[in-house]
Amino acid sequence: MSDQQAQKQAAAKAALNYVEDGMILGVGTGSTVNCLIELLPTVKLAGAVASSQVTEDKLRALGIEIVDLNFAGTLDIYIDGADEVNEHLQLIKGGGGALTREKIVAAASNKFICMVDESKSVEILGREFPVPIEVLPQARSYVARQLVSLGGEPVYREDFVTDYGNVILDTYDLDVSNPIELEKTLNNIVGVVCNGIFAANQADVLLKASSDGVTTLTR
Ligand code: 5RP
């Protein structure tokens, strides 16, 4: 097993400590979350709200009841991974294309617990990983031009459609030195459904795994 995979598993094991019997758990998407999902049968959940169809299918396969967010009320916790995280627990997410549903479930939860391996920590967001932006299909070219005017280099994610039937522009070279401002600016472009900067609603708890163990950071 690679060191990175071992770190993902360690972060997921640490996240499991926050999960209690009887909870309706918000569950993210991605390979780190998959490590958590494997551990969930050890807890008696009342149900789970899934952040993607892929996660929903995995949870169902384990016999975990899927709850519609509209009937779940405010969730106690939402657990997910990230593509990048800075020291303020602000994130870039959406590498798996589930950013919109992830942002909704995170916003509807009291506590967002983020699990990462050490490769995800950065000083400034967006220097290496592009900002994924979910866009209505018809607005793709218009939004791309707006992103270029902001200094970005949008790349259309080929052969990919989100759970909501939209497309993704993975946008390089944006200046993410002020993540809260850029998150708002991107949201204001007509045709943008959601962007992968999680700064206004950043993580509340970061479980950061390294080869020395898991460090817990809170805001
Ligand atoms: C999916 C996400 C994931 O949380 C992010 O891509 C991290 O994935 P992984 O745990 O596989 O590294 O935002 O949309």
Secondary-structure element order, N to C: HEHEHEEEHEEHEEHEEEE
User: Strand sequence of the main sheet, in spatial order?
Assistant: 2-1-3-6-12-13
Task: Look at the structure and give the mean pLDDT.
Answer: 98
For the largest beta-sheet, the strand count, sense and barrel status come to: 6 strands, mixed
Number of helices: 6
Essential attributes:
6 helices, 219 residues, alpha/beta, binds ribulose-5-phosphate
Gist of the model:
With 219 residues, the chain is of the alpha/beta class. Helices cover 27% and strands 27% of the residues. The two termini are 32 Å apart.
Chain-wise SSE layout:
Layout: H1 3-16, E1 24-27, H2 31-39, E2 47-50, H3 53-61, E3 75-80, E4 84-85, E5 91-92, H4 99-107, E6 109-117, E7 131-135, H5 140-149, E8 153-156, E9 167-172, H6 179-187, E10 192-195, E11 197-198, E12 205-210, E13 213-218
Parallel strand pairs: 1-2, 1-3, 3-6, 6-12
Antiparallel strand pairs: 4-5, 5-11, 7-9, 7-10, 8-9, 12-13
Helix pairs in contact: 1-2
The structure holds ribulose-5-phosphate.
Ribulose-5-phosphate binds at residues 28-32, 80-83, 93-99, 102.
Please explain how this structure is put together.
The structure is a single chain. Helices cover 27% and strands 27% of the residues. With 219 residues, the chain is an alpha/beta fold. The strands form three sheets. Strands 2-1-3-6-12-13 form a six-stranded mixed sheet. A four-stranded antiparallel sheet has the order 8-9-7-10. Strands 4-5-11 form a three-stranded antiparallel sheet, with helices on one face. A hairpin with a 2-residue loop joins strand 12 (205-210) and strand 13 (213-218). Helix 1 crosses helix 2 (31-39). The radius of gyration is 17 Å and the shape is globular. The two termini are 32 Å apart. The model has no long low-confidence stretch (mean pLDDT 98). Bound molecules: ribulose-5-phosphate. Ribulose-5-phosphate (5RP) binds next to helix 2 and helix 4. Ribulose-5-phosphate binds next to helix 2 and helix 4.
